[in-house]
Amino acid sequence: NAGVTQTPKFQVLKTGQSMTLQCAQDMNHNSMYWYRQDPGMGLRLIYYSASEGTTDKGEVPNGYNVSRLNKREFSLRLESAAPSQTSVYFCASQRGSGANVLTFGAGSRLTVL
Amino acid sequence: ELKVEQNPLFLSMQEGKNYTIYCNYSTTSDRLYWYRQDPGKSLESLFVLLSNGAVKQEGRLMASLDTKARLSTLHITAAVHDLSATYFCAPATSGSRLTFGEGTQLTVNP
After folding, report:
1. Is the pLDDT of residue A83 over 90?
2. How does pLDDT run across A24-45, given as a tens digit for each residue?
3. What pLDDT was estimated at residue A12?
4. How far is the C-alpha of A50 from the C-alpha of B94, rounded, in Å?
5. What phi and psi, each to the nearest 5 degrees, are found at residue B83?
6. Which of A97, B61, B72, B86 pairs as cysteine with B23 (C-beta 3.0–4.6 A)?
7. Is A105 on the interface with B (CB under 8 A)?
8. How many CA atoms lie within 13 A of B58 on its CB side?
């Protein structure tokens, strides 16, 4: 099983450029999440989708947009990248709410120059 | 807003020794997760603690939860090099939103 697949794994952008990080899961999970990880700060929630058709802001949503395209896919878009968005981005999915664990993708390392 | 504090943030220990990582959080939470991350890798689920007094063990790792004290511990018994990694605790808040601690970077030396 592939689990949670993120693309691309690495990306370098110039300030002001836009890009979309793609995430797909094949576990029939309802909930999906986007986190960013910065040194010394743990993981911070950007946006999440509790079910297909719904999205909600997390702790650090500014500068990002998301789309829950269908049950499998949840994309994260940077409309005008800034150096402060240099980070490692993780997508995660969860079967439902409650006690189920989050399954994480391999991560996408983004550098904004 | 839920605040999560882990300590220590950095831990260097010798093989065979025991140690405990502490995770304190600021508001009520009825579930707490522990994850492991190897350098440059993704996060791997270790434990889910669902209730006050919950204790779970897997190999040399044992996690516990005290919801009244808002404290979880991850105890390492007779450490081995393979346990070297960064460990995160993450209590759950509304719905299934997890708030992660900064992580404890564990290095086990021969």
Report:
1. yes
2. 999 999 999 999 999 877 899 9
3. 97
4. 12
5. -80, -5
6. B72
7. yes
8. 11
Q: Are B100 and A42 in contact (CB under 8 A)?
A: yes
**Residue whose entry in the numeric block shows the structure tokens 């993120």:** A6
Please, which pLDDT band fits residue B95 given cuts at 50, 70 and 90?
A: low
* Contact yes or no for A101 and B103 at CB 8 A: no
Angstrom distances, CA of residue B32 to CA of A96, A110, B20? 16, 29, 16
Q: What are the chain A neighbours of B9 within 8 Å (beta carbons)?
A: 40
CB spacing of B41 vs A99 below 8 angstroms = no
Distance CA A72, CA A70 (A): 5
Cα separation, B94 vs B77, in Å, equals 33
Q: In chain A, which residue's Cα lies nearest the Cα of B95?
A: A97
Is the pLDDT confidence value at A14 over 80? yes
User: DSSP state, B27?
Assistant: S
